[in-house]
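User: I've been trying to design a sequence by hand for this structure and keep getting stuck. Would you show me what you'd pick, starting by listing the structure so we're on the same page?

Assistant: Good idea, let's start from the same input. This is the structure you sent:
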């Protein structure tokens, strides 16, 4: 079991536009302030490339730790065993 005080980095994938990504950054900063042992590494991709990018990463066993996705994509990703909701 990992030491609860050890530093952890989570990669988090998004497909936000520039306006919403700014809000996401604020949320990430607040989260990291509350949980100083967790670092959020945000990975924002253009909406049109998002699904293909993360499907390809999953095939190479290189998926981010957390993926924000649309409901319709989530169903496809779950059926493909890419992630579990």
């Amino acid at each position: 079991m990992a030491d609860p005080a050890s530093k952890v980095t989570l990669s988090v994938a998004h497909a936000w536009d520039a306006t919403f990504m700014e809000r996401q950054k604020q949320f990430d900063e607040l989260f990291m302030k509350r949980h100083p042992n967790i670092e959020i590494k945000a990975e924002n991709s253009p909406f049109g490339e998002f699904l293909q990018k993360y499907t390809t990463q999953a095939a190479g066993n290189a998926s981010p730790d957390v993926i924000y996705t649309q409901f319709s994509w989530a169903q496809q990703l779950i059926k493909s065993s890419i992630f579990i909701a």
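That's my pick for every position. To get oriented when you compare it with your attempt: The chain has a mean pLDDT of 86. The chain has one domain: 8-79.
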